[in-house]
């Protein structure tokens, strides 16, 4: 869980930094998006680098889900009879919503790929105009898309808040002081990432990016 | 105080079990929770009914025998307290209190609120000890131990093996217990020779016993009557990583 989660979190950082290029204007953003397909040229032909990256990500996602499923199945088997009276949470809310949060994130990722990678669900859906796709996507009359994106990003934030701390712990973080630091770092990371991702749809919604 | 108790009644391991409601009047706020159950049992016996079976021994909070899920809290609402040390003043007059046994497939119900915790013994048997015959307690300063390590080892050694961590864990994992029993040895010089075979043996025994996997949810430490810190599990994780990465096998003679 920890290793695949870290790979995916690194991708999220890169993806967020790329998204923020939307503020540098249409030409620059489109240029960046096209450059993504050309990374590694001329060493690697065509869009090889992109496909290598996609393969790594898919493997990481699948391994992450397999590990989560194994844990969930073990948890279910370990408590065949449920409590009649169960307190909701003593620990953190984020920790208790990892499983369903993960499912929501997976559904969002599928929608997101159909929306802005293949363009199937995008009102513009033109692969040569990524900036236009983004602006059309979060147009004020499509407020429900923005709402869904916001909820999904918040789910990612919760997932990361516990996930980042849990990854440190799984990889051997062992002191009480380190635990406080790891928890704080995970919280800051989750908040920054959420802010970085949400600023783009809200900039489009408010007309800051058009 | 007048209370309504909803208690899990189960005749034996094969019985399906159900929650049964018992009104209990004239409870003193100065009674412990188990004394309140004693009062209920005396009345049940007088009425010719089967008394509620529950585990208890020292009633001083140090033996680890008692263990009740009280209103969804392992050992009840007061932190750092076993059910036997919990007093009725923690509850309100007229309150309904749900009492259930620990729920885990590794802890099968024997009767009513009594569960079989032998799974913990299997974890200990898989490495929770040092094999060297050490004789009687040596002179305290003959083996130097860093103060921080001594404190952390002592913190882990406070574990009474009651099983509240398993009961509170959303995954039904016994990792806090396993980590505490491991850390009390791995932080001290006497525990070093078998450090890495011990961690693998104990974690394997934990998994085989049918406990769930730890997801660092953090529900165990608030439920622990001895407040074993969550980072104890991090110490276990680090030893486990070291043991598996090196293929370490430092048991003398193996």
TrEMBL record, chain A:
InterPro entries xrefs: Cytochrome_b-558, SQR/QFR_C/D
Keywords: Membrane, Transmembrane, Transmembrane helix
Transmembrane regions: 48-72, 93-114, 143-164, 185-209
Keyword Transmembrane helix: yes
Cellular component terms (Gene Ontology): membrane
Name the UniProt record assigns to this protein: Succinate dehydrogenase / fumarate reductase cytochrome b subunit
Species of origin: Micromonospora saelicesensis
UniProtKB/TrEMBL annotation, chain B:
Xref: InterPro entries: 2Fe-2S_ferredoxin-like_sf, 2Fe-2S_ferredoxin-type, 2Fe2S_fd_BS, 4Fe4S_Fe-S-bd, 4Fe4S_Fe_S_CS, Beta-grasp_dom_sf, Helical_ferredxn, SDH/FRD_Iron-Sulfur
GO MF annotation: an example: succinate dehydrogenase (quinone) activity
Cofactor: [2Fe-2S] cluster; [3Fe-4S] cluster
Domain 2Fe-2S ferredoxin-type, chain residue ranges per copy: 1-103
Coiled coil: none
Family: Belongs to the succinate dehydrogenase/fumarate reductase iron-sulfur protein family.
Record-given protein name: Succinate dehydrogenase / fumarate reductase iron-sulfur subunit
